[in-house]
Design brief:
alpha/beta, globular, NAD(P)-bd_dom_sf, oxidoreductase activity, 4-stranded mixed β-sheet, SDR_fam, Rossmann fold, signal, oxidoreductase
Length: 191
């Protein structure tokens, strides 16, 4: 969760004043979170949110990808309350992409999985297209808190629409990254 979610959460908040300052009505600043289809099986367990040895690696990955979608939706809600905010944040699923990450399954199993992905699924270039689309497309810049797949707006899993969980995740994330109220308020100031 630290790398795939908490780092993104903190970096986004720290960059938010600059993003707010540079966004314009017809050209908003854009934040694109790379999620995954595996957000479908993720869950947010607040009792074990930051435990490093509680889940299997794959489960942690799924949980972090759900957290990114929830974060995009919650930040969108919080930005709507800010004056003249021209920042959008959306989540993307790049699809099944063959990358070197599969070597973490071991050299033999990883090579087999990577071979299957390279031959049956998207190349890294193809996988990047949805993120590029969301970062550059005019219509994609008109929505915020949404989920995209294959360069189209799509529905996230139902668990990504739970506003109560999104708010609680926000509060826990602020606490776990040790951000004070003053620091958090600074992130939302208009510069």
């Amino acid at each position: 969760m630290q790398v795939n979610y908490f780092g993104h959460f903190l970096l986004t908040l720290l960059l938010l004043p600059l993003l707010k300052k540079t966004g314009k009505p017809l050209e908003p600043s854009r934040i694109v979170n790379t999620s995954s289809i595996y957000h479908n099986i993720g869950k947010i367990d607040f009792k074990n949110l930051n435990k490093t040895n509680y889940w299997y690696k794959f489960q942690i990955y799924a949980h972090s990808k759900l957290a990114l979608v929830l974060f995009a939706r919650e930040l969108t809600c919080r930005l709507r309350g800010s004056k003249d905010t021209h920042v959008v944040i959306n989540s993307v699923d790049p699809g099944a992409v063959g990358t070197n990450i599969f070597y973490s399954f071991g050299p033999i199993r990883g090579a087999i999985i990577k071979f299957l992905f390279y031959n049956m699924f998207k190349t890294p270039w193809e996988g990047a297209q949805t993120a590029i689309h969301v970062a550059m497309d005019k219509k994609a810049g008109e929505v915020s808190g949404e989920f995209f797949k294959n360069c189209k707006q799509a529905s996230a899993h139902w668990n990504a629409y739970n506003e109560t969980v999104a708010k609680q995740l926000w509060e826990e994330s602020v606490r776990l990254v040790k951000m004070s109220d003053e620091e958090l308020n600074h992130c939302f100031l208009d510069l």
